[in-house]
Write a structure and sequence with these properties.
Chain A: This is Germination protein YpeB. The structure holds 2 protein chains of 2 kinds. Chain A is built from 11 helices and 12 strands. By secondary structure, chain A is an alpha+beta fold.
Chain lengths: 427, 271
């Protein structure tokens, strides 16, 4: 009994030491996090003030060089401030609105520097500067209490989950929402993009649940006896669709089919894939036959990539007499290497279909366009969206640097304005 | 010499001959291909000093131009495709030590395979340079099993961190649900309301439970990597969602106010 009491006492003493050590470690960790978050909060406040000043300073100049200098600073500063905001433990809605607003300021600065449309910049930024000033004041009011948290992590953490209506960031959130709507309303091309993304142009007749299953079985006859479960998208979804989940032996997957018109949005099948592959030709032929069978006949292969279990192919819609590839209207197909079974289809972009407007085309002398050590290896015409989300006809050039490693680049050039839209190194 | 010995001699001879020529599979190898045939193609092209890039089993443009140059120099039709004739010509004019090459790849070593240089001098030990090629990076790379071919704009690091996030967040979910979680992260990349890089999105404070509870550091399985690969290649079972939550465990009132799209497994996906 005596020994037991002795051992128990010793155990309690050791437990006390361990607990104290853990407590100390936890406290140290809390202090580090608290310090990091306070630093981010202070940084965000300081950068907001600097951004406000720089936006105001940009309104001083007519001189192109002086103004471009300020625009460059604004773009960098807004990007920097976005990073600080992303690290703040505040409500996601406040964080999102703020990041959107800063992104818009940065994008506008970049665009003004690129296009030289300084008049538009001045018109917009007069209001933005005033709003940034008002916002900075509200932000200071909202955050002043956070410096009085006495290192209490609980106060920080609860803020994130506190309902916005009870939070000091309530007014900040309201302000940002209003500023986003009034200072940067959606442009025509952005609005078109949203409509397209939400499939608002599909006015086809609605199909029923059983018609959706029938469509699914027509698309994939090899699993037409699969056990299926169909649910409809939530009422809030921007476009209504049927979500079909299926099981067929070891195969399991899903297909999403639009309610309007029964278009296949996407399909995936998961199953074990055996090691012995068929040839690339057989696999590609199966993919091409599938495309024809399901009615995607206006497409052409634009990309292919092999991986451990499957080949991924991309087919893009062709448009016009010169058969330009419309990249935003592409279909991705995944084909199993062991038996060329279709493992996946993603036709969402194809269904969203771009509206193509007439556009001029000015040929380019590649020898003048590129430097002497560059060989133009391939050139084709494509349609792709520029930075302003406008669909443009472009020249897509595969160019090779004549060096030892034959560095290869894909350069996309607007066919009318000759603006370089994309320039990426290919592996 | 007895008949038995003659047969044995012929067998040994044909065996050594076979190990020299029967190497490539009977597949045509072309741009976009991936795997052992490409490894051999790159190694043989490097042996002949046509290829100076990394031997990684990925048939990209570097391999393509090297192969075309080889075809041109050896009087073959120049198409950048390793068909039967090209492969035969390569086999007859180069050497390929499969065991050595695959050992280096599996170990994740940086190495080269130039002809005329002892193989031991072409393996790079950490912090030293090897080989005569221009690709003199130090340290270890990813091996062929972990490696994957990704669309332009994505790196192996993106794949890795996304797979960690998917595994930490949704390893108990159906495959579709795992692809959807990866797609949500990629959708955030397109949205002006979120940071501009994959890692900044994943490590945004309190954005993902797996980061908060440390499960992001678990080693992802092959299924999570495949799910990420599908999302990177364009699949989005979430149908453009920016958020998801588990209705059983979610404590935030705000997340319930988001417009919902659909439920996959335990997660509700929303805008």
């Amino acid at each position: 009994m005596r020994n037991f009491a002795y051992l128990l006492g010793l155990f309690i003493v050791i437990l006390g030491f361990v607990s104290f050590d853990l407590f100390t470690q936890n406290k140290q960790l809390e202090r580090s996090v608290f310090a990091a978050q306070t630093r981010d909060l202070s940084a965000a406040t300081e950068k907001l003030s600097t951004l406000h000043s720089t936006v105001e300073q940009s309104l001083l100049f007519q001189d192109e060089k002086a103004l471009n200098n300020e625009l460059d600073s604004i773009w960098r500063m807004s990007s920097d401030l976005r990073k600080s905001v992303a690290n703040l433990p505040i409500q996601p809605e406040v964080q999102n609105e703020w990041m959107r607003y800063l992104g818009r300021i940065g994008d506008n600065a970049k665009q003004a520097a690129q296009t030289g449309d300084y008049e538009n910049w001045r018109n917009k930024m007069t209001t933005v500067a005033a709003n940034l000033h008002a916002f900075a004041e509200e932000w200071n009011t909202a955050t002043v209490a956070f410096y009085e948290n006495d290192g209490d992590m609980k106060k920080w953490s609860t803020n994130h989950t506190t309902d916005l209506s009870e939070s000091p960031f309530m007014n900040v959130s309201k302000q940002l929402k209003t500023y986003n709507e009034t200072d940067f309303p959606l442009t025509a091309s952005e609005s078109d993009y949203e409509k397209k993304r939400d499939l608002q142009h599909i006015k086809d007749e609605k199909i029923t649940k059983s018609e959706a299953i029938k469509k699914f079985k027509n698309f994939f006859p090899n699993i037409d006896d699969a056990l299926v479960t169909v649910t409809k998208s939530s009422d809030d979804a921007p476009y209504p669709f049927y979500h079909i989940q299926y099981i067929h032996g070891s195969k399991i997957g899903y297909a999403d089919i639009t309610e309007n018109g029964g278009h296949l949005l996407s399909f995936l099948l998961e199953r074990p894939v055996k090691k012995h592959p068929l040839s690339h030709e057989e696999i590609l032929n199966t993919a091409e036959r599938f495309m024809k069978k399901v009615g995607y006949s206006d497409v052409k292969l634009s990309e292919s990539r092999e991986n451990h279990e499957a080949w991924h192919f991309v087919f893009s819609r062709v448009h016009g007499e010169d058969e330009a590839l419309v990249y935003p209207d592409s279909i991705q197909v995944k084909v199993a290497k062991d038996n060329a079974e279709i493992l996946g289809v993603n036709a969402m972009e194809y269904i969203q279909e771009e509206k193509i407007t007439a556009q001029g085309e000015v040929p380019i002398d590649w020898e003048e366009f590129f430097s002497d050590q560059v060989s133009v290896e391939e050139m084709k015409k494509i349609y792709t969206a520029n930075k302003n989300l406008q669909l443009r006809k472009c020249y897509e050039v595969i160019a090779r640097l004549n060096n030892q490693s034959n560095d290869t680049f894909r350069i996309v050039i607007d066919a009318e304005t000759h603006e370089v839209i994309k320039n990426e190194k290919l592996n | 010499m007895s008949l038995k010995k003659i047969v044995l001699f012929i067998l040994i001879l044909s065996g050594s001959f076979a190990s020299h020529t029967i190497a490539f599979s009977d597949q045509e190898v072309q741009r976009g291909a991936f795997g052992d045939d490409v490894v051999e193609l790159q190694a043989r092209l490097q042996y002949l000093s046509f290829y100076h890039g990394k031997i990684d089993g990925k048939f990209g443009y570097g391999t393509y131009w090297a192969l075309r140059n080889f075809q041109e120099q050896y009087g073959l039709p120049v198409d950048g495709i390793a068909g039967q004739k090209t492969k035969e010509k390569l086999v007859n004019n180069s050497d390929f030590d499969r065991a050595f090459v695959h050992e280096q790849i599996n170990a994740g070593n940086q190495f080269t395979y130039y002809g005329g240089i002892p193989l031991k001098d072409q393996v790079k030990k950490s912090g030293t340079a090897a080989g005569t090629g221009s690709n003199k990076e130090s340290g270890k790379g990813s091996n062929l099993t972990d490696s994957m071919q990704l669309p332009p704009g994505y790196s192996e690091q993106d794949l890795q961190i996304l797979a960690n996030a998917v595994y930490g967040e949704a390893r108990g979910e159906p495959y579709e649900g795992q692809v959807a979680v990866a797609a949500v992260i990629l959708n955030r990349l397109e949205s002006p309301e979120f940071p501009d890089t994959i890692s900044e999105i994943i490590f945004q404070p309190l954005a993902f439970t797996a980061v908060a509870d440390g499960q992001i550091w678990l080693t992802p399985n092959e299924r999570a990597k495949q799910a990420v690969l599908d999302a990177i290649n364009g699949w989005d079972p979430s149908e453009n969602a920016l958020y998801y939550f588990n209705p059983v465990t979610a404590t935030s009132k705000w997340i319930w106010s988001r417009p919902q799209i659909k439920q996959i497994g335990e997660h509700i996906f929303c805008l």
